[in-house]
Amino acid sequence: MPGRALIEPEDAEYPHVPTPKELELSRQLVELQQEKDLRETRALTQIRDLESQVHKLQVRVHDLSQMLQSTKRDQILAQQAAVEEERKRWKVTVQALQTELDQERNDKEAQKKWQCRFIPPVEVPEDVFATCSSSKPAPTIDPKEDVFSRFSQSLALLPASQAPQVAEAGALPFLVHLLQQKMGDVVTGSVLIALVHLAIYRTKSRSHQLPASSNNGLDIREQIVKAGVCTPLVDILEASQNARVLVEASRLCAALASYVPNKRVLASKNVVRVLVQHLMPHIPPRNREKRGDDDEEDISVTLEQLPLPWDLAVQENILSALVNLSHDCEILRSQIAASPYFLPIVVRYVRESSSAGVQTEAAKLLGNVAFNHVVNQSALMAAEAPTALTACLTAANLQRSPQLARAGAVGLANLAYTSVNQLTIGYSNASTLLLQLLVDAVSQPLVIEAASTALACLCHQNQPNKARVAAQNGLQVLLYALGAIPDTKHDDDERGVGAALIALCESFAVIANSRPNRQQVMELDGHFLLCQLCQSCSGVKTPKLLESSARAVCALVPPPQERSALIADNRESKMETKSIALKALDRARHLFEQESQRLRHHGEKEDSMKGRRRWLTQTIELLTSYQTASALTSEKPGSDGEDEFRDRSSFSLESLTAISPDDLCPHFYD
């Protein structure tokens, strides 16, 4: 048997068999490792839990801080809003208190000035040494009169909206009773101011929102007259020598006369005679004794040489009263015109007064007296009223007072009623100044209206004046004014700008209604402007402008003989080109028919309107016949200036003076 190799003990490989002790140690080591892993896992879990709690706490802290900031901000904003609201409330309260304080202060100041205004001036002796040695005490007011005057002044200081309540409270009879007692000038003047303010509370344009009358249905001006104010008012006007009292009495008379039903009562009290006496120069006693031996011419010469009485304020307000009395009242106009030597004195006021207000009121009075009354017009022509009225039309007077220029133009328009008067005024420079007014006053519609009406009155059925106006480039001026006046879209009541356009169209219809003037308008292409204006008018908002513009277009349509002459000269009738005139007039007739249908239940008014617009139908028929080459043999209405579209009397204008509140009550209508 083979022998075995010998192995050294150190080279021998022994199997790895752990000993019991090693096994124990291994087991303990494994347990320790497991315990370590468990503790690490538990520690990590706790760490994550703590981190999560910390994050939640941070979010909570952030939310709480945001809520705290928001709460503080809301509180601060609420406090600020409350403070601002309180501040505004106190500001309004302070402003109301300040306004009330200012009003009370102004009222006291106004009462003090009113009392000083009506206290008659103290006569100063001529001896200066006597004046220095004897110190006269200031005039005192009786306590009873002071109470009554302050009561009247407190009524005068009330705003316009309180006037109906004052009338309903029964204050009017008491105020009239104070006038009847003939107390001092302070009481009389204060009562007159209160009555004036009560009478004019509705004269402001915005006051149409106020009730038209008190509960009894009467206008306050009528209530004042029914309370019996006319008799004491005339007595004051006749007997008072206090200029300021006369001013207020005249203002009250003018305010009451602006209401037509009051005129009959005022006429019965001979108020015209009293007012006229104040405006007449005072003839010295020595000359008055010789009046029986002097003829009327000497007296008129004497009156022309004497100075005009009273101051400018008295003159202006008395003239205003006469203006309102003569407005829309033939009886009072005749009384004024019949006053001996008075009309030449009114002309003197227009010619010589240094006050534009006095001149304006005097010119208004002349225009009202001449309103559609041939006898009065003859008297005014004899008094050289046209010369004085023409002087009112200058550019200097327009710059000084547009109302004066308007009053002068209205006066000339009313005087140019007969052919003799038209020629007399036409031979002067009146037409030149009127045309210049149309250029200079293009931004003042009231002046444009009066100047256009005056030109229409001068040329109404008067060929020489039509030729004279055309030779002075009058047609060019009318076209310029028609194009320069602004749009009337917001002038629905046809006042202001609308009235100026109406007057321009009416003047154009008169002046262009002759063969030479029609041809001149065609050469200027003026028919385009008039047809365009007629096409743009509304039958509901601007019916008067539609009618006047249609009338102007009709005036440019040539009659058959004139058209035949144009065709014979190989010239076209521009009014027939593209049927420009026929389209405008057809549209106008259609709008008028629509308006008539809307007012069909007013049968009488509809029939009268159809009769008034017969010229429109005839002109349309004439243009239609031109298109069919069968011209009518009859002349169209208004051809060659023999007949006009409107009567002369329909052009006349009247003037009415609006009475304003006292200067110490600037916020009367607020």
TrEMBL record:
Record GO biological process: nucleus-vacuole junction assembly
Claim: Repeat is one of the keywords in the record: yes
Family annotation (SMART domains): ARM
SUPFAM superfamilies cross-referenced by the UniProt entry: ARM repeat (SSF48371)
InterPro entries xref list: ARM-like, ARM-type_fold, Armadillo, Vac8
GO cellular component terms, A-Z: vacuolar membrane
UniProt region (Disordered), positions on chain: 1-21
Record flagged with keyword Translocase: no
Name of the featured protein: Vacuolar protein 8
Source organism phylogeny: Eukaryota, Sar, Stramenopiles, Oomycota, Peronosporomycetes
